[in-house]
Design a protein that fits this description.
Layout lengths: L2 H30 L6 H8 L3 H7 L3 H6 L9 H7 L6 H18 L1 H12 L5 H23 L7 H23 L5 H13 L6
Helix pairs in contact: 1-2, 5-6, 5-8, 6-7, 6-10, 8-9, 9-10
């Protein structure tokens, strides 16, 4: 067996184990409430060792909030891949659609995850931390596209903060409905921002 094949199998096994752990955290949280689930419960449900859990996630919070792992490319990476000739808001629209496609690709799982998050106030500090980290990364990506400085210019930080709000509101509305595709909600939110948020 070639080293490439061996590496591919190893990575696939790691991804499968990570997915099983994330699924166990979510399933048990739906059944018991997130605060009543321990890492030991998760490893028992996933039939892996305690040590294996921490080879994939730093905490049960990470397993719930970042099921693909902390190293998964985010919006900033997606934005960097978009045609640099596109205006910023159009580039952002493209990047956000790609980033949020995973929600609709596994809608039931994500709706369950959002329900657990909404029912668990203790997750708020971690959510704020993740949001702040994402905003800094997006601001840097916007700055790179526009030739601005995220440390001294308002524009990159403002765009990043607006995108964070747009994503959060769009996902919350999608989660609360069953008949409106997330892409439609996202476009509606971005159109409102581009229009200057006119009064309804």
């Amino acid at each position: 067996m070639s080293s490439v094949t061996t590496t591919g199998l190893r990575e696939r096994k790691k991804a499968d184990t990570r997915a099983a752990l994330a699924a166990a955290v979510l399933r048990l949280s739906v059944e018991r409430g997130f605060d009543h689930v321990t890492v030991e419960d998760v490893t028992t449900a996933a039939d892996v060792s305690y040590r294996t859990f921490f080879n994939h996630f730093a905490s049960k919070e990470e397993a719930l909030l970042q099921p693909d792992g902390a190293g998964r490319p985010g919006l900033a990476a997606r934005l960097a891949e978009v045609d640099p000739a596109l205006p910023v808001l159009e580039a952002v629209r493209v990047a956000l659609r790609v980033e949020l496609e995973r929600f609709e690709a596994d809608a039931d799982t994500w709706r369950a995850r959002f329900a657990v998050i909404a029912a668990t106030p203790a997750l708020l500090p971690r959510l704020v931390e993740l949001s702040a980290t994402d905003e800094r990364s997006v601001a840097a990506a916007v700055a790179a596209r526009t030739g601005t400085d995220p440390a001294t210019d308002l524009y990159p930080g403002l765009v990043a903060a607006v995108l964070s709000a747009v994503s959060r509101v769009a996902v919350m509305r999608w989660h609360a409905t069953t008949d409106v595709p997330l892409a439609v909600v996202l476009d509606e939110a971005l159109d409102a921002v581009a229009a200057g948020l006119p009064t309804p």
